[in-house]
Amino acid sequence: MSSRFMSKPILVIVTLALVFVALFPILWMVSSSLKGAEELLSSTPSLIPKEPTIRGYEMLLNPPPNHPLAAGGGSMLFLRMILNTLLYAVSTTLLAVPMAILAAYVLAREHLRFKVLLIAFLLFTYLLPPIAIVVPLFQMVADIGLYDSYLGLVLAYQLLVLPLCTWMLAGHFKNIPRELEEAALIDGCSRMRAIAQVFLPVSAPGIAAVATFSLIVIWQEFVFALVFIKTEALRNVQVGIQYFFQPSFPVDWGTVMAASTIVAIPTALLFAYVQQFLVGGLLKGAVKG
Amino acid sequence: MYPAAFISPAYIVLLVLVVVPLVYNLNLSVNDELFGYREFIGWQHYRDLLGDSDFLHALGVTVKFAVADALGSFLLGLIAALVLASKIPWRNTLRVLVLLPWVVPYVITGILWRWMLHPMGGVIPNWMTSLGLSANPVSINNPDTALGGVLLATIWRGFPFAAMMLLAGLESIDEQLYEAAAIDGANRIQLLFRIVLPLLSPVIAIVVLLRLVWSANAFDVIYMMTGGGPMGATETSSLFIYRTSFQFFNLNKGAAASFIQLVLFLALAFPYIVRTGRQYNE
After folding, report:
1. B255 and A257 in contact by Cβ < 8 A?
2. Residue A28: per-residue pLDDT
3. Nearest CA of chain A to the CA of B194: how many Å?
4. Which pLDDT score, from 0 to 100, does residue B236 have?
5. Whether the Cβ atoms of residue A30 and residue A261 lie closer than 8 Å to each other
6. Mean pLDDT of B119-142
């Protein structure tokens, strides 16, 4: 065990501290989700629950009648919101990725006169803060009559996901050697066939990773979901989790942590798949944090 | 024909979703609307905003927050990268573990840290008391320290990104440079400051810039942790825009504030955008 930058004892201490800092909050979240109401308020909390209980999780699935979660959609509201979020994520991705593939292919392969402009525009939309555009976008969507609708949100989400996917794919495609399609073209293949039967299979893992990123982004999206959707039945779970923080209702932290744990699981799983690509080529300029 | 056809779907959608709202935004911001009666008022909203102490305060909070977050994420990320570049047991597992905060959704991050800093059941105030501190130095209920509390959450979530990028940069440094330095008698500190950091400076610049941009525009975590309070202590310009547009229903003023936010964003990000665009084209 050694480092060029620090002595061994320091390395040990720093490594342990790092792991602690990264992991502890997450462990605390799960641990709190398994604690009962009294233990949560204890002045000597411990990481391992002294009296573990799944009460928090039960509350999510069977909230008592006057609980905020039971409002509107009945006892299935939490599950409903999870499903909604899943639906938004998948639909947005299914719509965005094909368009992104087409655009990225041209950006990666063709020499265009205004390519720098195209890339700059893409990066601009990619880094654009959603909050700066949400006000006029909201007005526009409302004027078209798509406010508080599933379609409206999925369309608005294209703004968040298209630039990300196009940019990541553009980088990924550029790394695939041109010779691949050239060889197919020389053999008499039409360009369409060359792309479909030669290029796409080779680039498929990268495309899958980019699609996964898109899912991750939409799963945790909050601002648009907050602004564009009003009906509880259509809410996504990131916004819906606010229901726990009603002013007239003391916050039930055990249930909140249970909900948080559940909401964090999909991103954890998706991320587990995608992290293998991260330290490699896909990272180049792809991730904005 | 085909390049245009392939590029069109994505770019047309983006044009519609970006350029049209921006034009709309300009229109919104130069009007004032009351009960459906629209009146053109020119730059009045902008003038009001620049004199609005709440807005100016929000800008100040934004700058403090963004700089602190970018610095904090960078420093913690650097330490993490230095550790992960070393020879340690279970290095690959550790790399994934250290990336874990990045996996937690923004909203959950806000809620989780709100719970950890909770005056009654929160684990951090508890530690503070057992360490002998009378008050929680990062309490989110205290206007003076609330920003610090929020920073804990955003830096925690953000440092893995910095760590990843810095690690990639570290691993691309040629071994021979280290050997040459060792021959010249460099010690560890000199190694770090005279060789590694200068070589990493392009990556550092990108990391710091992206974090600045991100935190200046951050909304989710702050909203869930403090909602901008207490008493506006954590209200960044993003939260100001949200409050003005969707709580006070003054969409026109919110549009003007959004425009100012956009201009500031462009000022920050423009060099990066142009440079990266050119780099891609090489």
Report:
1. no
2. 93
3. 12
4. 94
5. yes
6. 83
How far is CA A143 from each of CA A25, B20, B52, B241, rounded to the nearest angstrom?
43, 13, 30, 21
Partner residue opposite A133 with nearest CB, options B21, B161, B273: B21
Instruction: For A33-68, write each residue's pLDDT tens digit.
Output: 998 888 888 878 888 888 888 888 888 887 776 666
pLDDT, average across residues B114-129: 86
- State both tokens at B32: 């004032």
CA distances from A281 to A158, B73, B223 (A): 24, 23, 34
pLDDT at residue A281, as a whole number = 52
| Mutation to test the B interface, candidates A127, A168, A261, A262, most B Cβ within 10 Å | A127
CA-wise closest residue to B217 among B62, B80, B113, B103? B62
Give Rg (Cα) of chain B.
23
Spatial distance between the Cα atoms of B149 and B128, rounded to a whole number of angstroms: 13
Does residue A88 contact residue A153 with C-beta atoms inside 8 Å? yes
The answer to whether residue B32 scores a pLDDT higher than 50 is yes
Residue B8 tokens read as: 């069109």
Helix (H) or strand (E) holding A97: helix A77-109
Out of B83, B96, B99, the one facing A11 most closely (by C-beta) is B83
Question: Which residues of chain A lie closer than 8 angstroms to B111, CB-CB?
Answer: 241, 256, 260
Beta bridge partners of B38: B33
Question: What is the C-alpha to C-alpha distance for residues B55 and A156, in angstroms, rounded to an integer?
Answer: 27
> If you average pLDDT over every residue of chain B, what do you get?
89
What kind and span of H or E run contains B38?
strand B37-40
User: Using H for helix, E for strand and C for coil, what is the string for A212-243?
Assistant: HHHHHHHHCCCHHHHHHCCCHHHCCHHHHHHH
pLDDT of residue A195: 82
Q: What is the reported pLDDT for A67? A: 67
Q: Residue B171 pLDDT > 70, yes or no?
A: yes
Reference A132, options B236, B270, B73; nearest CA is B236
Q: State the burial class of residue B91 (Cβ atoms within 10 Å of its Cβ: 0-12, 13-18, 19+).
A: middle
